[in-house]
Design goal:
about 55% helix; mainly alpha; 434 Repressor (Amino-terminal Domain); elongated; about 110 residues; 6 helices
């Protein structure tokens, strides 16, 4: 009989922090874009935190692209920057999904005329 050692010292949140490399890179890019948008508007982290009803630490984590920050926080920060409409462009152009859907479409067969 096999027994598996369970490491209880490992918290659940550490599992959530592991993303595929490309996803981590994209999240860092989004954070950098949010930081640049804040700087272009000449707003401090404290001002964005106040407008987004979150802590300054949370804003800094968003700007670093930390994967454990909730999507709702991102939306509140985007709203504070006046960029909340940009969230609508996520997954808008799904070329692969459309291609897969088109491949799965079945041609309708007509019954033969008798």
């Amino acid at each position: 009989m096999l027994y598996y050692k369970i490491d209880y010292a490992m918290s659940k949140s550490t599992i959530a922090t592991h993303l595929p490399r490309r996803a981590e890179q994209n999240l860092r890019i989004v954070g950098e874009q949010i930081r640049l948008a804040r700087l272009r508007r000449d707003l401090s982290i404290a001002q964005i935190a106040e407008r987004a009803s979150c802590s300054e630490l949370t804003v800094m984590r968003v700007e670093k692209g930390t994967p454990t920050v909730a999507i709702g926080i991102y939306l509140r920060i985007l709203f504070a920057l006046g960029l909340d409409e940009s969230i609508l462009f996520l997954a808008k152009d799904d070329e692969m999904g459309r291609t897969l859907q088109d491949l799965d479409l079945k041609n309708r067969q007509r019954a033969s005329k008798k």
